[in-house]
Amino acid sequence: MESMSSSEAENEPTTGQDVELPAVAPQLRALRRRASLTLEAAARAAGLSPAHLSRLETGRRQPSLPMLLALARIYATTVSELLGETGADRDAVVRAVDMEPTAAGGWTYWQAGAPGRGMQALRVHVPHDSQGDIVRVHPGEEWLHVLTGRLRLRLGDTTHRLGPGDSAHFDSLTPHRIAAQDPDGVELLFVHTLLQSPTATLCLGPTPGDMP
What we know:
Layout: H1 6-11, H2 24-34, H3 39-46, H4 50-57, H5 65-74, H6 79-82, E1 101-104, E2 107-111, E3 120-126, E4 141-148, E5 151-155, E6 158-162, E7 167-171, E8 176-180, E9 186-192, H7 199-204
Antiparallel strand pairs: 1-2, 2-3, 3-9, 4-7, 4-9, 5-6, 5-8
Helix pairs in contact: 3-4
């Protein structure tokens, strides 16, 4: 008989809390991989053991609602998507009035694309002297386009200076730094293939030691 650790047992859902939906298992695995998280990293963030999360992903356990809420937050998605309820009627247009600003590490960004897509589109304001010394290294590709101000972009050992109308497209596994040159900061459009990443990953970027 399979045994569980005490910490895992504490996280095991009771029958009354179970969400009896077979579609949850394949969605959990697919969304974790889409978020570029290892089983161990996702389990740690959710307060579960890797073995427990593995059982959820293979359908041998059913998640409780609190677990679904936690995993939706970690995977930057919704409980509906975890349950496989994404519809084909997602809005193609994002109105300016619906773009709520979010701050992270001094940066401010607005979601400029619809959720649940293969790319994440943002409008970003980078203040002067904000996070310019942080080296970002993470999976995916990035494309950015400068709207206002001047941007200093360091890719590997090369520094590029971009002005309004300039763009850059690069593999984000290349160590990179982004900094505003002007006192008023820089505003840019930003597209990333790492779908619906957490704010900290996009705006601050994990350092190499943070990657699982």
